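REQUEST FORM: STRUCTURE PREDICTION
Request ID: SP-0412
Submitted by: Lab K.M.
Chain count: 1
Length (residues): 238
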Amino acid sequence: MHECGCVIPDGDLIWLIKNTPAMRSTALRYLAYSNSNNSAFSELSDFVLKSIFVDDASFVEITGYLLHGRFRRIDKLIRQVRDFCRTASQRGGVGLHGAIFVASKFLPKEELMSMLIDNIGKISEDFWLCRAAAGVSPCFIHTPDFGKFHDIISRLESEDAHSVSKYFMNLADDPQLSPSLKAYLTASNDSYPQKLYFPKVLSLLAISKNRDAKNIFPQMHALHPALRSDPFYRQMGF
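STATUS: Completed
RESULT:
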């Protein structure tokens, strides 16, 4: 249906997500293309909070749906995302990993920082969680909160976290981009609803903090209009 240009009704996709676990991954991937994601997630968030989703894969897929779908900025959605992040962060490393990135897109920086502080012990013991914590560095670079965030990364005592954080700091400070990096950042991710893969959004955010951003990547917003048209990407700092 998708390849033929047909629109799969949201209700059918939500039904599959709730009732057919084998189709959950596919249904969530296509639900992200919906024009009514606020309503769709309203149903799914209730499903998450009732602990129907218990496997790691479900939290991975819902995280991807939230990061790549387009949502309207309303208080109800933010409350639901906050509840999701709280629930996911209590469901082991995979859930916390997703919650960190979802919070970086939807929630105020203060709440993201509180999540990192509250889970610093768990994060410090896990390779991927250390990288995830450092992965949201662009949200804090060149803001008044960067000192506190840097202290959190230091407390992790993780070389991997420092490596990731340094990568983003270089993007925010270096006066030019390598040809390979520029090619990566220029390319459109056409398999995603807004043609942007979320890790690329974080790299672009770091570059947008660079004082030479207009010179080193002047076509950023022309190539990736979602950075400003999506209210949550825009609130991240674009």
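NOTES: The radius of gyration is 18 Å.
Reviewed by: T.R.
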